[in-house]
Amino acid sequence: MVVNVFGAGLAGCEAAWQIAKRGVGVRLYEMKPDKMTPAHKSTDLCELICSNSLKAARVESAAGLLKEEMRRIGSLLMQCADKCSVPAGGALAVDRNRFSAMVTERIKSEPMIGLISREVTELPDDGITVVATGPLTSDALAEKISELCGSSLHFFDAAAPIVTAESIDMSCAFTASRYGKGGDDAYINCPMNREEYESFHAALVSAERAPRHDVDVQNPKVYEGCMPIEILAQRGLDTMRFGPMKPVGLKDPRTGHRPWAVLQLRSENEAKTMYNLVGFQTNLKFPEQKRVFGMIPALKNAEFVRYGVMHRNTFLDSPRLLCSDYSMRSRPQLFFAGQMTGVEGYMESASSGMMAGINAVRRLKGLPTITLPEQTMIGSLSRYISDSTVKDFQPMGANLGILPPLEEQIRDKKMRAAKYAQRSLEALDGLLEILKTGE
Question: Are both 83 and 41 inside the same structural domain?
């Protein structure tokens, strides 16, 4: 019994390790060193391209909780990261060269894993395969994946911020759809009067933007109409009022009149724990987003689970294509893992590889696949990327907003995060035996 794994980055190495540790052979394909991308410099596996930080270390944080869940399940990458850590305040950061070298040594010394240095250009028709080739997938394989999916891979250029539902000040907002179409709770509307709007506009057009080097942010061919809100605002004082902030078809129940301008928030997930700022794609720096968007009365205390970002990336339309076990809906023998599934971040990618590897073995053995409980960070991430109610799918990293709400209201952020972590690890404990043994 052998499983193919394509790609030896974070997701691929974790998937291969989990498969091997369950007694199944792995053919791990990696095109390095024969073919390198401009972003890769090392011939080692699991190269960290950008930062050497794996984000927060505290278990009472979204990123720390994700890593603790992975530790308990038996993650190779967490074993290596903990051994290669360097001082980084409250974050877990690693010596990137030592980390990659250690992962490479562990993979190469595992007798159940055969490392094959070759570019993959086809998807197999039989057997079980985990595709974890990441955003730098070679053109030939990307074309085959696009053909299988029935459309091209998504190009993610602009995304609006997302805030937690519980942080929206509903005393300054109301639920309604324009002209009453689509249900009264389809949107949360954040109204502004003229003075509030004009102050917001002035702050927005003068706010500091993140530097852009790879694309022209005003090129409609690149963004296909996803214009950054700050650029739209530059075109005139009322441009937003005739665009994403138009108040037509809405009446503020507090005044009985149409607002001067309205920001609409759309639920990001079925549980309605997160809301997207509709039409607010942005290239502002993160602190500026919090400052400027916080001028909207309903968002004055908003907690951002993801800030708006603009960069070029490729990923699957996972809510239409993947199940929560990371297998393809139309081809259950084919699993995807890593950033191409829409999870965003080093360890988020590794966690998807972990679950794809575990489930690949279970499918090979004729056992039912596993999706972790929604109370866990790993489980919530896998559910989010496979949630068919998510319409405008955009990559998502670990955050407390994707977890189901706590039963009790806890105002203190640290205490609330600690409660989320406690609930998650308790839910995970009951599954550790089956996760580790594979039976």
Answer: yes
